């Protein structure tokens, strides 16, 4: 819709900022505003890694330099919260009562860390990690020798456990699954990756948790029936999407804001991107992606839709995670694979595991071998049939398979 | 204009790959990545990604760009311009010349 003269983006995470960047990049000349509740738009992945470790400041993890917004003629309304969205009139209402009108509104509201409704879940020493403020609070308790329980060993929990350990804390990591992350990277790789925690000195326990009790010097919880005492607990058990504005505005929401392949919500004046969305592709509503690059790609698609331009090509979903100095990447859909091919040896990085279905790569996960995943992504996107023996042979240059 | 330094042979770098030349050889602040595009052309950029600490020589080289091996920001091989987040700063390009199969590097000269 090239007649769009103004766009308001609610939320300045990677989704919102990418939408704005892509709009300008592709020629949008109208008024562009980002409203964000925080001090400045910053990047979240470092919150469990270098920022939590104290190696990076908030300025270091800013998504864009402060000048960028002026250079791009983007009005950044920081420290500002949107209270309501009136989809039909294209108005967003701020908590101050001020109203902003726009031809198109983009919801890029992200989510919040889940606080499970367990007894004691409101105790002060119970932390979650979603914002820089959460990370600041958490860092204060990750002291040498502090007894820290991390609940959830998927992505954020595993990263926090690693950072906490390297800050000198005495870390226990609990997860009900024996091989967390196996849905994303495959069971064998997940089993080894989880064992790296114990090899580095973290106590790993496979158990569920049914509550917490405040004690004089911290928190008590029962793991497999045994009482354990901690100075602080970090919950890394998932995200709740921020869908309230969409719900109140009457948009279609079902455990996420339902959007089209081009990020339109059920009201065409409103688009939505990033963590809170569920995209409809080929008639099927996908799960929430909840990864950094997915939010970036959503932004590029939303911009194209607003400008009436063609959508960027679809590409297999990708994410990375870092722990104990290991860089892990995964691409595609592990659940679609019927067989697996290992390149190198699991447990001896660099190595990669490819998921295969009908002679095509459908997924890959790698530790310290990003190029195996980057090759796999292209093999998936271009639907190139592969010879499994070549794929599994570390002596074969994967780029050659792409040229085949 | 400097003399240039013979830093490698063309055969040392496969198409789509890169190698890093140590700063003790280049005399620059950072190591320099020699990156060979899939059309065979060789380009040179500061090796360390402008986002966090990663060697662009270990990145994926394709279609005039190198993709960082950590978080996949792309840089233009010719200009060093960053194409997208998470990196926000451009990297520095250096001039390269191929003579008789040798790769000559001209640090800090614009390609
Ligand atoms: C600790 C941590 C580590 C991570 N590590 C990785 C990783 O290694 N790799 C990876 O791929 N992904 C990682 N992720 C996931 C990734 O960061 C998210 O997928 C990404 O941030 C989603 O971007 P978003 O823009 O949708 O949401 P967000 O980044 O959450 O941004 C939403 C923004 O909207 C603002 N907002 C919300 N409601 C309002 C309102 N009503 N008014 C004004 N502003 C509002 C919020 O303040 C926030 O700034 C990590 C996430 C966390 C929390
Ligand atoms: S280190 Fe290169 S993109 Fe992050």
UniProtKB/TrEMBL annotation, chain A:
Residues 318-402 form the Reductase C-terminal domain. Its cofactor is FAD. Residues 6-299 form the FAD/NAD(P)-binding domain. GO terms for cellular component: cytoplasm. It comes from the Bacteria. One of its GO terms (molecular function) is oxidoreductase activity, acting on NAD(P)H. Pfam families: Pyr_redox_2, Reductase_C. InterPro entries: FAD-oxidoreductase/Apoptosis, FAD/NAD-bd_sf, FAD/NAD-binding_dom, FAD/NAD-linked_Rdtase_dimer_sf, Reductase_C. Keywords: FAD, Flavoprotein, Oxidoreductase. SUPFAM superfamilies: FAD/NAD(P)-binding domain, FAD/NAD-linked reductases, dimerisation (C-terminal) domain. This is Ferredoxin reductase.
UniProtKB/TrEMBL annotation, chain B:
CDD domains: Rieske_RO_ferredoxin (cd03528). PROSITE patterns: RIESKE. Pfam families: Rieske (PF00355). One of its GO terms (molecular function) is oxidoreductase activity, acting on paired donors, with incorporation or reduction of molecular oxygen. GO terms for cellular component: cytoplasm. The keyword Cell cycle does not apply. InterPro entries: Cholesterol_7-desaturase, Rieske_2Fe-2S, Rieske_2Fe-2S_sf. Residues 5-105 form the Rieske domain. Keywords: 2Fe-2S, Iron, Iron-sulfur, Metal-binding, Oxidoreductase. It comes from the Bacteria. PANTHER family: 3-KETOSTEROID-9-ALPHA-MONOOXYGENASE, OXYGENASE COMPONENT, IRON-SULFUR DOMAIN CONTAINING PROTEIN. This is Non-heme iron oxygenase ferredoxin subunit.
């Amino acid at each position: 819709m090239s007649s769009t003269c103004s766009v308001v983006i609610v939320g300045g995470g990677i989704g919102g900022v990418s939408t704005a960047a892509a709009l300008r990049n592709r020629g949008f000349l109208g008024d562009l505003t980002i409203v964000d509740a925080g001090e400045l738009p910053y990047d979240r992945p470092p919150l469990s890694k270098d920022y939590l470790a104290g190696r990076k400041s908030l300025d270091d993890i800013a998504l864009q330099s402060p000048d960028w917004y002026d250079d791009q003629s983007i009005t950044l309304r920081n420290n500002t919260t949107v209270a309501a969205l009136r989809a039909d009139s294209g108005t967003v209402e701020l908590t101050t009562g001020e109203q902003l009108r726009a031809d198109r509104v983009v919801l890029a509201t992200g989510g919040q860390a889940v606080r499970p409704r367990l007894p004691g879940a409101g105790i002060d020493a119970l932390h979650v990690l979603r914002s820089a403020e959460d990370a600041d609070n958490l860092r204060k308790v990750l002291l040498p020798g502090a007894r820290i329980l991390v609940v959830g060993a998927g992505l954020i929990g595993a990263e926090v456990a690693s950072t906490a350990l390297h800050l000198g804390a005495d870390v226990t990591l609990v997860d009900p699954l024996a091989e967390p992350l196996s849905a994303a990277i495959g069971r064998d790789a997940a089993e080894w990756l989880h064992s790296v925690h114990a090899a580095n000195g973290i106590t790993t326990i496979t158990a569920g948790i049914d509550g917490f009790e405040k004690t004089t010097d911290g928190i008590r919880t029962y793991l497999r029936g045994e009482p354990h005492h901690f100075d602080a607990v970090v919950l890394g058990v998932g995200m709740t999407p921020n869908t309230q504005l969409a719900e109140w505005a009457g948009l279609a929401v079902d455990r996420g804001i339902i959007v089209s392949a081009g990020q339109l919500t059920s009201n065409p004046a409103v688009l939505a991107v990033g963590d809170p969305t569920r995209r409809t592709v080929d008639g099927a509503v996908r799960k929430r992606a909840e990864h950094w690059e997915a939010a970036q790609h959503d932004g590029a698609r939303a911009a194209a839709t607003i400008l009436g331009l063609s959508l960027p090509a679809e590409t297999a979903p990708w994410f990375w995670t870092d722990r104990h100095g290991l860089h892990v990447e995964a691409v595609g859909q592990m659940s679609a694979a019927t067989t697996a091919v290992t390149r190198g040896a699991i447990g001896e990085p660099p190595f990669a595991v490819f998921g295969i279905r009908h002679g095509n790569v459908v997924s890959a996960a790698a530790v310290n071998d990003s190029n195996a995943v980057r090759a796999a992504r292209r093999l998936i996107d271009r639907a190139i049939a592969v010879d499994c023996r070549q794929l599994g042979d570390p002596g074969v240059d994967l780029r050659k398979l792409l040229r085949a | 204009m400097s003399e240039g330094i013979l830093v490698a042979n063309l055969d040392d770098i496969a198409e789509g790959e890169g190698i890093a030349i140590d700063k003790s050889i280049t005399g620059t602040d950072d190591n320099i990545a020699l990156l060979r595009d899939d059309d065979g052309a060789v380009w040179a950029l500061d090796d360390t990604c402008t986002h966090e600490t990663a060697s662009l020589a270990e990145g994926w080289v394709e279609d005039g760009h190198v993709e960082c091996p950590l978080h996949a920001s792309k840089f233009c091989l010719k200009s060093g311009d960053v194409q997208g987040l998470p990196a926000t700063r451009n990297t520095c390009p250096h001039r390269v010349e191929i003579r008789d199969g040798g790769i000559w590097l001209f640090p800090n000269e614009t390609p």
